Amino acid sequence: MYRKLVEWKESSSRKPLLLLGARQVGKTWLMREFGEREYETVVYINCDDEPLTRELFAKDYDIDRLLIGFQAISGKTIKEGSTLIILDELQEAPRGIHSLKYFQEKAPGYHIMAAGSLLGVTLAGQESFPVGKVDMLHLYPMDFEEYLMACGENQLCGLLRSGDRQLADTFSTRLTELLRQYYFVGGMPEVVGSFVKSKDLTEVRRLQSDIMEAYRRDISKHSSKRESVRIGQVLASMPSQLSKENKRFIYGVARPGARATDFELAIQWLIDAGLVYKVPRLTKVAMPLSFYEDCSAFKLFFIDVGLLGCMSGISASALLLEPESLVEFRGMMAEEYVCQQLIACGRTPYYWSNDKTPAELDFVVSVKDRPVPIEVKASTNVRSRSLSQFLKDNPSLRGLRFSLAGFREQERLTNWPLYEVPFIMVGEGAL
Questions:
Q1: Under 8 Å between Cβ of 376 and 364
Q2: Does the predicted model carry a pTM greater than 0.85?
Q3: Closest by Cα among 30, 56, 57, 50 to 42
Q4: 383/363 Cα distance (integer angstroms)
Q5: Strands of the sheet with 293-302, listed across from one edge
Q6: Residues paired with residue 49 on neighbouring β-strands, in sequence order
């Protein structure tokens, strides 16, 4: 992500940047850290904490007046090209987002970043979004590679990047231990930072509970009372939805007797807020994947595997010491983990199922403009008929299987350890 910010700064076609992502994924830290490293001056303004910003944007879009206002609020001088202007929680300032259009048109030499914990929800409801006038980047929780680096495991990261499969297998026990830690801790930066510093698992769960409570407050504050209840029902149902063998989202699990129309807005709110990932069903595994999307069937995954474990009430001892005791929850955590890594790597995941048979592919992604079917196994047991039968029926395709078993090449199928997902899916070398 930092590299992408540098590319944005150096781009000749740079526009004001909107950084999207859920609360607590590290947007504010990243913007300020980037500014301190790459610019002479950083002007940071939190539009939620500073009521003057609401008046500032409400009057008009005069650029000179806005720049003077930013300087008055921050107490810092703004210089074109050498100052980074950060407008945090911009959704709290009416007309603030639309003002970015005029910076792009009238003052493109100024470097402006904007972010907000519910900026995605605000953008979804805006009628006058400055289309084509802003750049956008999405920030996600730390993936497993970033987690390893935060834990000081740079050498293991280097080993996995090297592609030396035989040497990587010798460290499989340690990597599996770290993967299970990640299942518990997750990728929220504050939680990871606390765990790295103190190794206090109780504090991990406390911080995760605080984040979940902050999400609930956001829901209550930024949605109607009726929608707030329905959003809460969708969230509360997610452990049950994902622990089923067939993880397709069932409205009746959220509320008995419910229909799609009851929860469509609630689910979209959660997607816009960055709290859930929607994985649509494919009617056919062929390119382009989006052409074969079935809008009526989908899976929902949560933003972070650690938060999902917290919401599910899974104990540290079960995840770290007795994973075999989790039964169906093992599969839930493994699929949640893989989905989170795929999205962080820039992949758009789908899944496929056949109504005539119980066959199902956990995920399907595009690699080198070809569809790649993916199967996820939570343990070293990789026996499954779905992917094998699918590949027999589709001889032109090659598949991936992620499990706790070691690396192994088979005919038209490659088995990869779960801990390698972010290392092989970020580029084009997955096949």
A1: no
A2: yes
A3: 30
A4: 17
A5: 293-302, 276-282, 350-353, 360-367, 370-376, 399-403, 413-417, 408-410
A6: none
Q: Which residue has the tokens 């107490």?
A: 75
**Beta-carbon contacts of residue 6 (< 8 Å; ≥ 6 apart):** 38
- Pairing mode, strands 41-46 and 83-88: parallel
How far, in Å, are 187, 190, 307 from residue 312 at the CA level?
17, 20, 8
**Contact predicate 328/306, CB 8 Å:** no
Contacts of residue 232, Cβ cutoff 8 Å, sequence gap at least 6: 216, 219
User: Residue 415 corresponds to which tokens in the numbers above?
Assistant: 């088995």
| pLDDT tens across the length of the chain (431 residues) | 889 999 999 999 999 999 999 999 999 999 999 999 999 999 999 999 998 988 898 888 999 999 999 999 999 999 999 999 999 999 888 888 889 999 999 999 999 999 988 877 777 665 566 768 899 999 999 999 999 999 999 999 999 999 888 888 899 999 999 999 999 999 999 999 999 999 999 999 999 999 999 999 999 988 999 999 999 999 999 999 998 888 999 999 999 999 999 999 999 999 999 999 999 999 999 999 999 999 899 999 999 999 999 999 999 988 888 777 666 688 899 999 999 999 999 999 999 998 777 789 999 999 999 999 999 998 888 777 789 889 999 999 999 999 998 899 888 899 999 999 999 997 655 55
C-alpha separations of 201 from 113, 148, 227 in Å = 35, 17, 34
Residue 329 C-alpha from the chain's centroid: 21
Q: How far is CA 214 from the centre of its chain?
A: 17
